[in-house]
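User: Can you help me understand a structure? I only have the sequence.
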Amino acid sequence: MKKYWIAPLLALTLGAFGCGNDAEKDQKIKELENRLARLESSRTPVANPNLQAAQPQQTAVTSGNITNITFDQSVYDFGTVPEGTVVKHTFTFTNTGDKDLIISNASASCGCTVPDWSKNPIKPGEKGEIKVEFNSTGKPNQQSPIVTVTSNTAPAVNRLSVKGFVTPRNSQIQTTGPVKR
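Assistant: Let's start by predicting it. Here is the structure, written out as tokens:
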């Protein structure tokens, strides 16, 4: 069965939770990702051949082309930055399986974070990258946006996190000039 609906649904669902370091949000995201992984693994082919033929062609992820992915790190702590800073980090991974690794999507939990990933298949033993940019403008205090990576691995969904503290602009005390009363 084709999976064109999965990435937009996951992005929409995760986007509803926004950015932040709320344990309840993280738990809900993890539950949704687990449900999605179970749905992907339990899906059966479409019974109606006319429906199947009408859908666009895409390489199906089957048990025959599942591989393994190993990230050098799954959480990047950027420490403390002033609001307005753009934090950039590159997550490196290795295809530790015996089939080509294909990342079909990488989506962020909010619009403040933008992932860019290796679009070409990664051969067994080779490394790939997922570059992440977090824009802290309008995102003061503790932050931990999640990047959800979907690939032909088991599980099909992996999570990466960029976390840290953003010092709010309005918390900076002006030290020049007279005090106005």
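Now, to help you interpret it: The beta strands are 69-71, 75-82, 86-95, 103-108, 113-117, 127-135, 141-143, 146-151, 157-167. Residues 89 and 169 are 23 Å apart (CA to CA). Let me know which part you'd like to focus on.
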